[in-house]
Amino acid sequence: MSTETPPPVSAAVICHNEQEYIAQCLHSLRWCEQVVLVDSGSTDATLEIARGFPNVEIATRPFDNFINQKNFALSLCRQEWVVSLDADEVLTDPLIEEIRGLSFEKAGYRIGRRSFIGAREIKHGTWSPDYQLRLFRKSRSCWGGTNPHETILLDGDVGKLETRMLHYSYHNHQEYVERNTRYIHMMVDHLAAQGRTARPWEPYLHCVGNFLKAYILRRGFLDGYSGYFLARHIAGGSFLKYRLLSQRMQRLT
Questions:
Q1: What is the mean pLDDT of the chain?
Q2: Using CA atoms, how far apart are residues 184 and 165, in angstroms rounded to an integer?
Q3: Does domain 9-170 have CATH number 3.90.550.10?
Q4: 100: nearest Cα among 53, 14, 161, 22
C-alpha cells in the first residue's frame, strides 16, 4: 500500500434506463473527482437519481454501439486516471480502500467481478473469476474489441486488484436469454462487417467446446441449476453466433 497521496480519478459510466442500480453505482464513485455519466435517452428515473450526486456530470449521446459510447465517455474525463463501470456494477468499500492505497505504478489494473443473476451469486463457470480492465491511464487507452464485448486497449503494464466489485448482471434467467440474443445479433453484425466468416462445422465445435469449458472444466455444475443454465445458453449462444456467420457466408457464395 502506498503512503503517497493518490492521484485524482475520473469515472466513466454509460447508461440507459438503469434506475434500479444507478444510485448504488454512483454512490460507490463518490470518492472520484469527476463522474461522467453518458445517457442514451433514459425514460425512467435514472437521470433524476443521477442529479442527486454532486460529482456527476451528465452528457447525452444517441446509442450506436458500446465501443463508441464508452470512448465518448472517456473523452469527457478530465483526469489522467479513469475508472470505468457499467451502470449495474458497484465498488465495495474495501475495494475503494484498495484503489486509494495503490502506488499507481502500472498503466492499468484489472478488477474482478462477483456476478449475480437475481440474488444468486455465480461463483463458478466462465463468469468467475471474471477480471476486467477497469482502472487505467486515459492517455494510454481506448475502447476497442468486438461489440458488444468491448475491451480496453492499453499501452503498458497491467496489475490486478485483490478485492472484487459487485455485478448485478441480470434479474432472472429470462432477462439473460433476451439480452444475450440481442447481443449475439449485434456481435454477428460487427464480425460480418469486419469480413469474419465461419465454416459449416464451426457452430457445433464451438457449442460443445463452450459447454464443456463452462460446465465441466470451470465447474459450473457447482452453481446448481444456474450453472447448468448458463453453460447451456453460453453453448447455445456460440452455436447461434457461428451459425449466423456461416449462413451469411453461404449467401455470399
A1: 95
A2: 26
A3: yes
A4: 161
